[in-house]
Design brief:
Blueprint: E1 7-12, H1 22-36, H2 40-47, H3 53-61, E2 74-80, E3 83-93, E4 96-106, H4 115-129, E5 134-139, H5 144-154, E6 163-169, E7 172-178, H6 182-189
Parallel strand pairs: 4-5
Antiparallel strand pairs: 1-2, 2-3, 3-4, 5-7, 6-7
């Protein structure tokens, strides 16, 4: 980032604590600030409609129970000059222990600064350490910003050992990111 602003990432584990624990209360405040400072157009693409800011924050920590969404296993918040500007949340699939789903939101006025890529790199590190083999991300078909970002990140030197694949399912674009090193997979498919 050429603009000399300081970016820091902070990792939260909301599912490991009570929904009303101090860490989760702080996390909810960060999420409300990020969502509240994002454009309506970006929110529609990210949440497939107009979001309820309070419900988003509460579902992530488990304070608001939702039959469709579980509390998140990991949330990474990006701070620029000590202000929350982006977050990515990660949910592990209980029926598929080697797979996790990620979602990401970078404030509209802070996009295209490398924040999303930095969060994705942290996600890859965190999930590899937990033995996750694949990440899935569901993208609204009209979300051109996220599609461009994922295409660009798929070519990034810092993420060269991650396999990016795209498919379509039920009106959404599904990106699958393979976390096993490419060389290991290539060797497995081409035995000596």
């Amino acid at each position: 980032m050429g603009n000399q602003e300081t970016i820091a990432l902070r990792v939260f584990h909301p599912k490991q604590q009570a929904p009303t624990a101090l860490q989760n209360t702080m996390l909810e405040e960060f999420i409300r600030e990020i969502v509240g400072q994002s454009s309506l157009a970006d929110l529609r693409m990210r949440f497939f409609g107009i979001p309820d800011i309070e419900a988003i924050a509460g579902r992530i920590t488990g304070r608001i129970v939702d039959s469709y969404e579980q509390p998140r296993d990991i949330v990474i918040v990006a701070f620029e000059n000590q202000r929350p500007v982006a977050y990515t949340d990660i949910a592990r699939f209980s029926q598929q222990p080697g797979t996790a789903e990620i979602s990401m939101l970078v404030r509209s006025d802070r996009q295209r600064r490398g924040i999303g890529k930095a969060m994705l790199q942290q996600v890859v590190c965190e999930l590899r350490a937990e033995g996750v083999k694949q990440i899935e991300s569901y993208i609204h078909p009209e979300n051109s910003k996220m599609k461009r970002a994922l295409q660009k990140w798929g070519q990034a030197q810092e993420l060269q050992d991650v396999q990016f694949r795209k498919s379509f399912r039920e009106g959404e674009i599904v990106y699958r990111l393979g976390l096993e090193a490419k060389n290991t997979q290539e060797m497995a498919s081409h035995p000596l």
